[in-house]
Design goal:
Chain lengths: ~220, ~230
């Protein structure tokens, strides 16, 4: 990676894909990883909430419905810190292109919607390396709803049921995701998100993503 | 920005929050138990809460400690989870109900230990910005040497209490002293910063308890409670 200099100073690159649930992140991430590998680079993917130790504690606490807005936020922050230090930074040092399925922006969005102060959150994550590129898959809530209902079904937390928006599952999901989308929109400019219309075909989205990645990867 | 943190201003809840701080072996837990029993004998509503004891996460933290798996920052955040859980489930409801809440260690433990482990001082203070400011915090001052004598009379220092994760020294006794000195230094800085009330831990149990009771009496008197 000669011409481009990474924003965090490590040899590798940090590429983030953000978007709400059902926005098509996973599909695009596997396509992107494959493409990067085809260009003879090492690529790895790290997903939100996958640290060895803490992810289990989060799942357990969610199942038992034990979390309040602050413990929710701090547990995710602990998961992130662990993954950053054990997985992401070592990979960046080794020169990998690290593709992240969600990053600190996900925490900002979810926690602000749960009533936290953005300045408190920015401090909480202030040690996170700046990504070289952030893609945001923009999908309107009506389409998200159809995708989610047609696949995994409505999840308690993805519907923001913990914050008591509505006793109606469908309605709660719609309001919660609407609020999340609004927070993403607010961050677009501040963090230079590359916003991509998530209603386009998988192939078209992929083409757009790699056209940008080519700017930071010598191919 | 500082001002919006709850930790930096007096709370206006009905109850009273009293905390004890200091390195291990300073006798603070003993003092708190004696104080609790006395307050109960005076028919006061009292509850007691300890550091790292929430149902939510303390088991995870303990398991991770055993395997020496986590970085100082991750540890710090797990302790913050534990604290946030107890704050919202135990401490705040009790304060609203007018209880005297006795906390064996509070956020200052995190500020002292985590900074001694190299975590950024300003970062950790903001992380805990949601904490309720105590009405009274006693800092039990004891030297590292005395602490070591008391804690390790019958056993070697444990991995984390000796700060062995920092790889300061391969000798746990030596490491304990160096690490606990760092923790003590952080506590000393907080005496002014947060108005911690210092107490010489070398004094007798009786003398310390007399002092503790005087302190709590004057704090309660301010709230119109005469003991």
């Amino acid at each position: 990676m000669t011409a481009y200099k990474s924003k965090h100073g490590y040899e590798g690159l940090l590429v983030v894909i953000e978007g709400t649930d059902g926005s098509g992140k996973s599909t695009q991430i596997s396509k992107l990883k494959r493409w990067i590998e085809d260009q003879s680079y090492g690529a790895m993917v790290s997903e939100w909430k996958t640290s060895k130790f803490i992810a289990d504690a989060i799942n357990d606490a969610k199942e038992r419905n034990l979390l309040n807005a602050t413990t929710f936020s701090l547990l995710y922050a602990a998961d992130f810190a662990d993954r950053l230090e054990q997985v992401i930074i070592p990979a960046l040092k080794a020169g990998f292109v690290v593709i992240l399925d969600r990053y600190i922006y996900t925490a900002y969005v979810r926690d602000v919607v749960r009533g936290h102060d953005i300045e408190w959150l920015k401090n909480l994550y202030n040690y996170a390396p700046e990504p070289d590129m952030v893609f945001y898959l923009d999908v309107p809530v009506e389409i998200l709803l159809k995708r989610i209902i047609g696949t995994t079904g409505l999840d308690y937390w993805e519907s923001g049921r913990d914050i008591g928006l509505s006793s109606d599952f469908y309605e709660s999901f719609r309001i919660y995701q609407d609020k999340c989308i609004a927070e993403y929109q607010k961050m677009k400019q501040e963090y230079n998100f590359i916003s991509i219309d998530g209603t386009l075909s998988e192939k078209e989205i992929h083409k757009k993503i790699i056209s940008h990645v080519k700017d930071i990867l010598e191919v | 920005m500082e001002d919006k943190f709850r930790l930096n201003k007096p709370h206006n809840l009905k109850g009273t929050l009293v905390c004890v701080e200091g390195i291990d072996g300073s006798g603070k837990s003993t003092q708190l138990v004696i104080l609790r029993d006395w307050l109960k004998s005076l028919k006061q509503d009292v509850i007691f809460t300890e550091w790292n004891s929430s149902d939510l996460i303390s088991q995870t933290t303990k398991a991770a400690k055993k395997k020496n798996l986590l970085s100082p920052r991750t540890f710090s955040l797990l302790h913050a989870v534990d604290f946030a859980d107890r704050l919202e489930q135990i401490i705040i409801p009790a304060l609203k109900a007018g209880f005297i809440v006795l906390a064996d260690r509070y956020v200052y433990t995190a500020f002292a230990r985590d900074v001694a482990r190299g975590v950024d001082k300003d970062w950790i203070r903001k992380v805990y910005g949601f904490a309720v400011r105590p009405d009274l915090t006693l800092y039990f001052r004891v030297t590292e040497d005395v602490s070591l004598e008391r804690i390790c009379a019958n056993r070697a220092p444990k991995f984390y209490e000796a700060g062995m994760d920092l790889k300061i020294s391969s000798d746990p006794y030596e490491s304990y002293k160096i690490f606990q000195k760092r923790v003590n230094d952080e506590y000393k800085k907080m005496v002014d910063e947060y108005g911690l009330v210092e107490i010489d831990a070398n004094e007798s149990i009786h003398k310390k308890q007399v002092f503790f009771r005087e302190q709590i009496k004057s704090v309660l008197a301010l709230k119109g409670i005469e003991l």
